[in-house]
Amino acid sequence: MTRFNASRWVRSMAGGVIALAIGAGAVGAACAQSNDSGVAPAGMPAVKQSGDVSYVTGGVGLDESHALKAAAPHWPVELLFAGPGSDYLSDVHVDVTGGGGSVFHATADGPYMLVKLPPGDYVVHASYKGEEKTQAIKVGGAHQKASFRWNTQ
């Protein structure tokens, strides 16, 4: 007759949980960064630069959308662009100002944009088909998410 050893089972399960946690952390870190060659993990668009600011944009297609959503918590700023009926938009012109001037400027390749801004107070200006929307954000500590919605398709 086989005897159940509770302490051995608990140690075995704890080891499995730790391995899963380490693996999940490695996947999250991989989603947040590209490698030295500038190639991003599968599904993740390549990281770009605008001056001293790193960013990634996209989300057209399911793989890209999932990769960006998974990586978002690892970036200080997440921007989302949508039209009527929550239709996702691209070609949104983004300008971030702070400290008396523009600190970031780029055009979104899809509905998601992740931006690595240094800590500070900023205003995000997002323009789509000539209509500008603005939101103030404070970077530092918690992940910031700003959604912009237009009535124009």
Automatic annotation (TrEMBL):
Organism listed in the record: Pararobbsia silviterrae
InterPro entries: CarboxyPept-like_regulatory
Annotated protein name in UniProt: Carboxypeptidase regulatory-like domain-containing protein
Species lineage: Bacteria, Pseudomonadati, Pseudomonadota, Betaproteobacteria, Burkholderiales
Signal peptide: 1-29
A molecular function GO annotation: carboxypeptidase activity
Keyword Hydrolase applies: yes
Keywords linked to the UniProt accession: Carboxypeptidase, Hydrolase, Protease, Signal
